Q: What sequence folds into this?
């Protein structure tokens, strides 16, 4: 984690699990809460207070659904296009934000907000449509930035120009769906583009100073621990700012659900998943912000793994395992 000029804000002492204070750009001493760079700490340093994301549905679709590439989507993707917790797409962007703020303020009354375009592919529209929706979001009170989830193959020059323009006046993040660096797995899940496209898009975004968040799914069909760690190595070699580590959820009415119900796919058990997380955190470059460690499946359509509904239990157990194993992010010489 760094200041805007690249100075590290959190430094860890040599030796597993130890951490030391360091001064931020504002002169305050910061101590990492966990042995990894969490999103909460990143936001608190950046904005000085609790920051919450408001998930939005911009009414977009996806080239993997509209027939451009395919019509079925990725095998795990729900009818909501990975935006099952986004606000109602029939509402305007401003109305969605107001609704999201009203819900969030009950828990964090003094928070600032990130407008998070989450559902489907949020750069897959004419650039003037994108501009209108992004600027409507940014015009709302207490919106401190915009985060845009998209596909690596939906970032044309006109879209990059728009994002670069917006980044000159506000904080902009772009989340790219990698899922895996294993090309065979990517083909099986119907991602729809080769790793080369992801690499090029990450580099182009970095060139215009937009932080890139890589979305990774752990527990994909037929993937081994080695495959998942290879994905972490792949990310480590790229100009990646953040990562989402997402447990693969089996959601109703997806092709993955059919595999699960036939016995062809067996979801990860809790301890198995947490062990994978420990290894990934240990392997991950230490300056990459961890945006997610589990993810949430909509319980109304979640088929498996049902233990994932006990999110707090899983995170508590993960932190216990990190302490016991003396693991910290990027310290791959830990036992």
A:
């Amino acid at each position: 984690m760094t200041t805007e000029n690249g100075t590290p804000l959190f430094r860890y002492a040599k030796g597993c699990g130890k951490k030391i204070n360091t001064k931020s750009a504002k002169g305050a001493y910061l101590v990492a809460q966990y042995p990894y760079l969490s999103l909460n700490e990143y936001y608190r340093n950046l904005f000085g207070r609790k920051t919450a994301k408001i998930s939005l549905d911009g009414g977009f679709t996806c080239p993997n659904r509209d027939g451009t590439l395919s019509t079925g989507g990725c095998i795990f993707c729900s009818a909501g296009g990975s935006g099952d917790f986004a606000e109602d797409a029939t509402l305007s962007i401003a109305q969605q934000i107001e609704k999201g703020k009203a819900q969030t303020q009950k828990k964090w009354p003094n928070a600032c907000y990130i407008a998070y375009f989450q559902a489907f592919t949020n750069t897959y529209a004419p650039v003037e449509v994108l501009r209108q929706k992004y600027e409507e979001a940014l015009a709302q009170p207490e919106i401190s930035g915009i985060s845009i989830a998209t596909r690596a193959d939906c970032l044309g020059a006109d879209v990059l120009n728009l994002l670069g323009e917006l980044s000159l006046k506000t904080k902009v993040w772009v989340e790219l769906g990698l899922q895996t660096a294993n090309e065979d797995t990517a083909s099986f899940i119907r991602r729809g583009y080769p790793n080369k496209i992801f690499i090029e898009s990450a580099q182009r975004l970095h060139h215009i100073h937009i932080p890139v968040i890589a979305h990774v799914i752990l527990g994909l069909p037929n993937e081994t621990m080695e495959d998942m760690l290879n994905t972490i190595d792949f990310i480590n070699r790229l100009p990646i700012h953040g990562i989402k580590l997402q447990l693969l959820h089996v959601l109703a009415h997806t092709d993955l659900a059919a595999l699960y119900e036939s016995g062809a796919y067996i979801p990860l058990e809790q301890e198995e998943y947490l062990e994978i997380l420990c290894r990934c955190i240990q392997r991950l470059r230490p300056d990459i912000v961890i945006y997610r460690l589990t993810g949430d499946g909509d319980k109304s359509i979640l088929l498996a793994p049902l233990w994932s509904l006990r999110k707090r239990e899983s995170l508590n157990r993960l932190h216990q395992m990190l302490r016991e194993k003396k693991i910290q992010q990027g310290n791959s010489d830990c036992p």
Remarks:
- The first strand starts at residue 22 and ends at 23.
